[in-house]
Design brief:
The chain has 286 residues and is of the alpha+beta class. The chain has 3 domains: 69 residues, no CATH class; 66 residues, 2-Layer Sandwich (Dna Ligase, domain 1), CATH 3.30.1490.20; 87 residues, ATP-grasp fold, B domain (D-amino Acid Aminotransferase, Chain A, domain 1, 2-Layer Sandwich), CATH 3.30.470.20. Helix content is 34%, strand content 22%. The protein contains 9 helices and 15 strands. The strands form 4 sheets. The protein has a 5-stranded antiparallel beta sheet. It has a 4-stranded parallel beta sheet with strand order 3-1-4-5, covered by helices on one side. A hairpin with an 8-residue loop joins strand 7 and strand 8. The protein is globular. The chain starts with a strand and ends in a 5-residue tail after the last strand. The model has no long low-confidence stretch (mean pLDDT 93).
Length: 286
């Protein structure tokens, strides 16, 4: 029996767990299943339950829950030996004040949470640093703590996104056309380019495949940059910034195409398990 917790993917048995904690009925269904399909927004509780009680789950997101937050992702990159900008990790602003500066300005501060670049700040000088530290202290008074202080890498105002959906990789650049603006998210005004510098895209895709091979990850969006100084010297080295588990779909062609790619990935995964039933989606209901 194939069990789906995904709102779009139909299988032999279908359960929705959004907005609630998994219960004993969910556990019993998971234990009956030969394979379990989970949604992108799967909670940690549901994921851990499925992982512990079914031999086959899709997608594998172990590192999402084993290394939550931007700081723990840096620990993951270190453990895997992945090239990334030099980073120092801090529990809070007091921790930062008590430890000597290691990374020179300009630099980047990234809070341990947030998306779309809203909690990422370029620190050009001491005034920028003072302003961001004051913002951090305000956040800490509400209980939000933790950030990383990262080396600033000149990258021509662009970032390469590589999405992983099962075995499939898609890559595209997000470029910030405003030279006086920091950040390459779509909300910051970035534009998408699927075609530029195919050799750099291939290098980042190769790095992504290796990370997925070693970690088992089957769903995520990797962000890479390339140091323009290294490129000028003929060195191609993708630097991984972070892994996004809730990634935008504009660069993939929109939500409908994303769901079709997800359906295809599920079918391919089930085929490797020699399970006969091919689940189908409900794209007409989106």
């Amino acid at each position: 029996m194939i069990l789906s917790f995904h709102p779009i993917i139909e299988a032999d048995e279908n359960i929705l767990c959004a907005g609630r904690a998994p219960n004993e009925m969910d556990l019993a269904a998971i234990r009956r299943a030969a394979a379990v399909i989970l949604p992108q927004g799967c909670s940690e509780a549901l994921y851990r339950m499925a992982r512990a009680n079914c031999a086959h789950i899709f997608p594998n997101m172990d590192i999402r829950f084993d290394y939550p937050g931007k700081r723990r992702q840096i620990l993951l990159f270190r453990e895997l030996g992945l090239p990334h900008p030099a980073s120092e990790l801090y529990d809070d602003s007091a921790d930062f004040a008590q430890r000597p500066d290691v990374i020179a300005l300009p630099a980047v501060i990234k809070l341990d949470w947030g998306g779309q670049g809203t909690t990422v700040f370029k620190i050009a000088d001491s005034r920028d640093l003072d302003a961001v530290l004051e913002r951090l202290r305000a956040n800490e008074r509400t209980g939000q703590k933790g950030f990383l202080f990262q080396q600033y890498i000149p990258s021509d105002n662009r970032c390469l996104r590589v999405t992983v959906i099962g075995r499939r990789l898609d890559s595209y650049w997000r470029t910030q056309p405003a030279t006086d603006r920091f950040g390459t998210s779509m909300t910051a005004g970035a534009v998408i380019d699927h075609h530029a510098d195919a050799h750099l895209q291939a290098a980042a895709c190769a790095q992504t495949r290796e990370i997925c091979r070693r970690s088992g990850l089957q769903l995520g969006g990797f962000d890479f940059i390339f140091d323009t100084r290294a490129l000028e010297q003929g060195r191609i080295e993708p630097l991984v910034l972070e892994i996004n588990y809730f990634f935008g779909r504009t660069g993939l062609g929109g939500s409908e195409r994303y769901y079709r790619l997800f359906e295809q990935a599920v079918a391919q995964w089930l085929a490797t398990l020699a399970l006969a039933r091919e689940p189908h989606g409900r794209l007409g209901q989106i």
